[in-house]
Amino acid sequence: MAKFTKKFEMYRFLQANIPNIYAEARKAADEIGIPAELRGKFGLTGAISGCPSPLTKKVREALDKGSTEVIPLAKLVDEIRSIVKDVYGDEYDVAPVNTCEAGLWVTFDALFTPPMQGRGDSYQARYIIPYEKHLHHHGGYGRPFPGRFKDILADRGSTPGELGFYGKRQNNTSVYIAPLVGADYSVHGIKYHPVIQLTKVDPEASAKKIKTIADRHASMLTGITSLGYDTPGYGYGVKDTDGTPILQKRLAEIAHDFDIPYVIDNAWGVPFIGHDIRKSGADVIIYSLDKASESTTAGLIIGKEEFMVPIRRALGMHGDRYGTTASYGKAAYVTNDPGKEALLGVVAALKELRDNPAELTKPVDDMYNIVKEEFEQIHPKIKKGLIITKSYNSRAIEVNYENTWNGTELGLPIFSIEDMYAGTNIFQSGLGPMGVIPTVAYDANIMISPGLGTTDENGQIVEKNFRYAVKALVKLMEIVAKYSGFID
């Protein structure tokens, strides 16, 4: 294959050879021996909303039992509150919603936006977000600031237009997007955009920079938000002795200096065994429970009681007007109601996380061992640039290859998130011909997690199936590396 010195030429060549890459991938799946009956029915993650993993036996049993009983929904919500308080303490509260995105929406509207009542024009509100991966979620609720970022969401999502990602923006609210010190935002991809590479982020220098931004915008500052992840590829690889990412702790400290809330988007995370807001100092944390917690489709908002009061009021869960500690009524965000079956699944999943955490961490350990073994077989030039990390928070293994670009020549191709939505991220689309459902694999970062045909009914790893999926990924990476000229 040709050697390239310019990135756009390399990505142009890859685009022209997609049919050839797919053909080689299909042949490689045959060589690996992926059974015909397994193809198209298993994958590298069960944590994608568009193709969630099947429910475990315990959750299914809880649904079967509860669906035949008469249970007031306020009782289920209070059971969830009790479980959360068992773990975090009575000073924390919780509100279930139908999705994590719904949780972000109501939380930001309750805590970050200016009031809509009263005479005169509404004041301007601004929250700060690090320039990090997935910022179209927790960074999509304000108009981007500074202006250089006004088009940052242009190609995100499958349904663009006024009611696409741009349609989430809230009343008189803007979001300051703060580039992180040590991050690499160079341009890559067939869909040629900046990609977010964060393994070299300096948390202390980044926090100092964000503190300066906060000082400059103090008159309109209403909040700080970030992801709650804990791996190098997301910029949170530097941790304290308790295992808490330093950057998240510093963001909490900055927020509290300004008497504003720090809200964490931990969509691909799990309560109790993952991010601990008591240690990071976050005020509110939001989950997508169907991604990694083995729950029914639902979101969960957990936070300090002070901040949960307006959130629960907005959801109609705060309490009846005649005086109760909880209700299940109508409020502005009643449209985000998770429903009975979702609540039953949330209760079952949280009980498992509280009472049997090893049942959820063991698959992560098993995956890590298999991933390490299989990536030992990858081409040495690729292996040299890999960082493989285990995360109990995301119940996932992160494979990051930013460091393949450390030399003077072009590294392993990096696809942008825009490639994912355009169908030109070959590390995702190339798995299709192999019969493997793909995972999140952009910005030089690949996340592998259980659940999609790789686990049994109790959520434990079926080694043979999981190994097939990882072998397919390894082989696809080598095929793409060959066509890009990275390896011979």
From TrEMBL:
Q: Which InterPro entries match?
A: PyrdxlP-dep_Trfase, PyrdxlP-dep_Trfase_major
What is the protein name stated in its UniProt record?
A: Aminotransferase class V-fold PLP-dependent enzyme
Please tell me the species this chain comes from.
Biomaibacter acetigenes
The organism's lineage is:
Bacteria, Bacillati, Bacillota, Clostridia, Thermosediminibacterales
